[in-house]
Fold:
Amino acid sequence: MRLRGDGKVSAIIMVLPPSQSLWVGMLVVVVVVELPGALQKCIFDKVQAQARVVRAAPIHPDSPPNVPILGAQARTSGQKTNHPGQRASSLRGQTQRRSLRKTALPTTASPQPIRIKTWIQTESNDLSEAEKERLKAAVEEAVRIVSSLLSVNRVLGPLLLSRDINKYCKFIWRNASTANYNRCGRANNNYRSETCLDVTIPDDHLDGCDIYAEADSPHRTELRPKGAGLPDTDFLLYLHTQATDKCRAEPNVLAYAVHCQTDTHGRPVAGVVVICRDSLTGATYSHQAIVQTVIHELFHALGFSKELFQTWRDCSSNSQVGAGCSPRGKVSHSDGSGQMRIFTPSLISALQKHLASPDPELGGPLENLGVAPGRVSSHWESRVLQGSIMAPVLGDSTTVRIDPVTLAALQDTGWYTVDLNQAQSLVWGDGGGATFGSLSTCQNTSSSFFCTGSGFGCHYLHLHKGECQTDQYLEGCRVYKPLKNGSECWIEKNGGDEDWRGEIFGVHSRCFFSSLTRQNQTELSGSVEGCCYRHRCTGLNRYQIQVSGSEWMDCPAGDNIQIKGYQGLVHCPDRRLCVYADITPPSDILTTFPASISSDPYETLTAVQTGSWSPLRLPAELHVVPALGVFAAVCLLAAALLSLRKCCSCKVRIHTAPEDPTDL
Structure:
């Protein structure tokens, strides 16, 4: 028996597997099991189903796209009417629409990055100064990222939200032959305000509303005046931070969101993100986790929602998004196995490319847990798209990706043009084929993504040690999940004093399946599990590793190697290391000197971008240069930096070149 660094006790059993068996769960008898940390759960579907959505009434078909509707009536989702699709035909409404067409500036020649304006409810101001700074920094970063990805035909003039006629009006003229058809005839005396989830919308953000006491009389009474609206805004994000009942009921929920207003083309123009108060406290706060959570919820509010799937638009025959596009109709259908999928062109193409399959039935698979047969959810199926920003739960922030499949779905809404080149690498399932992630194939022991049993190994990105586990979303399939404590290979302090397995922790270390033990430890035998060793790239899918006390050793991808001074084997993962340039430890750690023996111009050009989220693609070919030349360059750089630090009186943070192409 021995005590592991993560607090687990395990028996030591010698296993010498063949090369492929290192990828499945290994035989480790666990006496004490400590479950990994809770995943971040999303409750969007439940919350959105309870929200009232005000949809702007259609305007004249030759109106410019995304023009704010001034004075137009608005409809609420779920409103029952005997005249579906009808629009107000009042003289005032016609006059305003003519005025809009006459005075509106021409639309931009091409869509522009979406302008998201954030408005914080007053009740959220009880945060401490430190919490306010955390919230501001995380939300600003999330908004910046989303704005860099999505472009829209911008709103011309101030964004003005509609009032819900079913709230402020007690009686609506329903006789189509009257002049005031579809106008409000009598005010609701109980009307106070418009809300979006738990947020009260300021009157200044809202259009006005009038009362027409007689069916054919033009005389009106102004119930509420028109607000000023919000300039330079395409989407209004109401931000609310509080320990709500939903937060208390779901301790794994960091935030939740809804959209509550859409424009004439169905595009959401306003929504709320509620950030649970406790997620900003010092003990549990993670900046990157909050950033990713806000992005996840923003994507929901912007259109990745089962409530909006049926309103997505087909703009394939039009040069502009939003305007002149036709409704896609029903986009979600069941495949032959009963899996609900979204079938839209960009999405199918992205799945075909990702899974390396021409199968035309590769629509975007939707999570089916807790969903009635034939119904859909607003998240991807975890077994197929683990690690996606739109998975139902988000894991460790280093494993979450703003993936090409999600961006393709947002492209197919018809409301946005999306910079697909900014997609981050989705490693999970890469090249896995059309049946990847199905319940019938996830038990296949030849898969390098799934595992069997309950042994210890490596998370599929090889940044963490892991344990083979399942959860409710995996439905019996098992994967290596990061350990709760000490799983990060890149954190040096995780190493401890015990090095009988030759582990090295640090920014350039990665997880390897290994049964290594030092030869002088004759009383110990090594089970195959995840161990942290240093690595450096020598080319595409080519690298060397270093074990404590050893020289650098070539580690051919897919093979097992022996290390001098050790008994046992190390497995060299195939197409996991030195392939994806954006799979790295957190950027604030990447400040050490390089040790890579690879050379490529983009390394130097992007060394200062280590804090950027954007992916950098690995070139198809890398050229090896003499190690002595790199060593000399490193020495010169170190000397220069040392001199600079001595000469400068101010504190300067230097972003040095990364160790290898995977550490950008």
Residues 129-149 form the longest helix (21 residues).
